[in-house]
Write a structure and sequence with these properties.
CATH architecture of the domain at 188-274 and 290-462: 2-Layer Sandwich
Radius of gyration: 27 Å
Low-confidence stretches: 158-170, 209-222, 461-465, 479-487
Shape: globular
Strand content: 5-15%
CATH class of the domain at 188-274 and 290-462: Alpha Beta
Largest sheet: 6 strands, mixed
Mean pLDDT: 80
Strand order of the largest sheet: 4-3-2-1-5-6
Length: about 550
């Protein structure tokens, strides 16, 4: 019930914040509340925030003007943007995104000075001259007004330094950080504690050149590299979809198989010039992770290393509703990061096992590996390995080995984080020996180094000498860049009738071989869905014909 008002008194003027606007839009777009009117929205607002919203303001907030505030928006908002009452978007969003990432990473460097307005203007000019988006355009003057708004947009007013003092003892500091993580983790069940980490993957590296950065023509090999972002909880019961980062917006093999991205096959695809994680992708990932936890009804603890892109994204986003981020000890992630304790190695072992088997198949068929192999094959192997081969037991062992959370009386697994992958390593070694005997490869490398070479590690050493150049590369999108030199011919799009025939064949096989009843149930359900879709399509064609379309 609304409070009584004095005659002629309009009350104090109030302006909604972006966070309040977002809350109203989320409530309005949630179908679980049923049909609602504007009056319902105004009443909800009063009960939620304690002051009355005018009908015209309510209509304005629910209009397309504020659609960018929606939680699934592609561009996550900073803490300041959510708290802001006014909206004045940047004229140069790419430049500001690059500049704020540089400022955050510069601030965190132990030898950096203060980030003054003059430095920001100087760097803004440098980014303007190097970012392809602004080539040929006159450089702005970077006025005091722009500088003030830039600082407000990105919460620079209260920025402070983080990091270790020059004389800090790494061992003592690492122990203290891990103890803090263990104490915080006690507030969560093990299935609500997650770890995220990236790793590089040279997806068509032949074994006899695994430790080289150039091929036989002297061409750099990194065009065949992607980054994979893996996330799992401590029980191994939740392995979230992989985020892959490449150089091409849509590689040719995607187009050949009529794929716009990877969502339809259970993963995500993002791209930039260096195929590395950057602040923009990291902010999108964190918002997505937080939404996943909301869907599962969880409040999660997410453990990450202090990679610059991670820190920049977390600092810009601030607190998340269902996720608390904690940093693993710097320069000690090889000891404390659960994914580095054998999970990533196990995942790569399964992928590499598929790759060397494919090499044998290609060799036996007299075909050229460089023409037959493309990034989508590697991605599919990676998805399958993550979903089916990396077991909860392996994940639990690696979490226990890291000792970042307390597993109680559980005995510590063997310190060798390759132990869980030994069968795959043995299989790869046998196949490589066969390839050598056939003359397909010159030498059999150290299998562990071949499966997970040092050059695939993602760390600060991967970055170029110039921080500006490295950030420019991340924000310079190469629309037509390709991950492979040559790709196979376009795959014909599968029709509903062809899919039904394939389903019928698979169903018969399962029935004739006493197949899994769960699989048969799934096949029958999918067959019914396709038949229904086929019938609907026929009816639409008949209707269009009758209407003379």
């Amino acid at each position: 019930m609304h409070p009584p008002k004095r005659a002629g008194y309009r009350g104090p003027r109030r302006t909604a914040t972006n966070q309040q606007r977002r809350a109203l839009r989320q409530w309005w777009n949630d179908d679980s509340y049923g049909v609602r009117s504007q009056k319902d929205a105004i009443s909800w607002w009063f009960n939620k925030f304690g002051w009355e919203l005018k009908p015209s303001t309510c209509s304005d907030i629910l209009s397309a003007k504020w659609a960018y505030l929606d939680a699934d928006s592609a561009l996550p908002l900073s803490r300041f943007q959510l708290a802001s009452q006014r909206t004045r978007p940047s004229k140069w969003p790419t430049l500001e995104a690059a500049l704020i990432e540089w400022a955050i990473r510069y601030d965190k460097h132990p030898d950096s000075g203060s980030t003054t307005g003059d430095i920001l203007r100087y760097k803004a000019t440098e980014f303007w001259s190097k970012l392809p988006e602004y080539q040929g355009l006159e450089c702005p003057t970077w006025t005091e007004g722009w500088l003030t708004r830039f600082k407000k947009r990105h919460t620079m007013k209260a920025r402070r330094r983080h990091g270790e003092a020059a004389g800090a003892q790494l061992d003592e500091e690492s122990t203290r950080i891990v103890e803090n993580i263990r104490e915080e983790a006690k507030k969560y069940s093990a299935d609500c504690v997650y770890n995220m980490d990236e790793t590089g993957k040279y997806w068509k590296m032949k074994p006899d050149r695994s430790l080289s950065t150039t091929d036989e023509h002297g061409k750099k090999k990194d065009k065949a590299r992607i980054t994979a972002c893996l996330t799992c909880n401590a029980t191994g019961t939740d392995r979230l979809p992989i985020w892959f980062i490449g150089k091409a917006k849509r590689p040719a093999c995607f187009r050949n198989e009529h794929l716009d991205g990877l969502q339809s096959i259970g993963a995500f695809w993002r791209h930039n010039k260096k195929a590395w994680m950057n602040g923009i992708i990291m902010k999108e990932y964190l918002c997505w992770f937080n939404q996943e936890m909301q869907k599962q009804g969880k409040h999660a603890l997410l453990l990450m290393d202090n990679f610059p892109a991670h820190e920049a994204a977390v600092e810009q986003l601030g607190e998340l509703s269902n996720t608390k981020v904690m940093w693993l000890p710097p320069n000690a992630t090889s000891v404390y990061q659960p994914l580095d304790q054998g999970i990533i190695q196990n995942w790569k072992a399964y992928i590499q096992q598929q790759f060397v088997m494919f090499m044998v198949q290609t060799f036996d068929n007299g075909k050229d590996l460089s023409k037959e192999m493309h990034v989508l094959k590697a991605i599919r192997w990676g998805i399958s390995a993550w979903e089916n081969d990396v077991t909860p037991a392996t994940i639990q062992n690696c979490w226990a080995r890291s000792q970042v959370i307390d597993f109680g009386a559980r005995p510590l697994p063997a310190p060798d984080f390759w132990g869980e992958s030994q069968p795959q390593l043995d299989s790869i070694r046998q196949i490589l020996h066969r390839l050598k005997q056939s003359g397909y490869i010159a030498n059999v490398p150290n299998v562990r180094e071949y499966v997970s070479p040092y050059i695939e590690q993602v760390n600060n050493d991967c970055l170029s000498d110039s921080l500006v150049d490295e950030i420019v590369a991340q924000y310079s999108i190469e629309e037509e860049a390709e991950e492979e030199v040559e790709v196979e011919a376009e795959v014909a799009k599968v029709s509903i009738q062809e899919a039904l025939i394939a389903l019928d064949t698979l169903r018969q096989y399962e029935e004739q071989n006493n197949g899994d009843l769960g699989v048969l149930k799934t096949l029958r359900r999918r067959e019914r869905e396709l038949l229904s879709s086929q019938t609907s399509s026929k009816h639409q064609v008949q209707l269009d014909s009758w209407l003379g379309k």
